[in-house]
């Protein structure tokens, strides 16, 4: 039975049925899809930006540890493993969170080479 307009309201009031029409469900689904297509790429960019900031922080920690090493030993560290001490960097040497590579030191300056994200 096809019911439209004013008679539809009477029919709904009599039968006590309430619900969403197919058009209303389609409109809500479309709106949710549009919002998701705008929000999801931004979340992905946020995660990669956070990883790049962590990499930058690790580089700064390495540089501070290299300066501590230079002040204590009187020479620049040649490899990262020389900084693997509680007095400098700690027991665990971190890897780059962006690409998973190990950090390398410039043997002359004792600074991190590469990893500019």
Poorly predicted runs of 5 or more residues: none
Order of secondary-structure elements = HHEE
- The value of Rg in angstroms is 30 Å
Q: What is the overall number of helices?
A: 2
Strand order of the largest sheet: 1-2
Terminal-residue CA separation: 64 Å
Secondary-structure-derived class = mainly alpha
- Number of discrete domains: 1
Q: What is the average of the pLDDT values?
A: 85
β-strand number: 2
Let me know the largest β-sheet: 2 strands, antiparallel
What is the general shape? rod-shaped
Strand proportion: under 5%
Proportion of helical residues: 40-55%
Please write out the topology.
Layout: H1 5-15, H2 22-73, E1 104-105, E2 112-113
Antiparallel strand pairs: 1-2
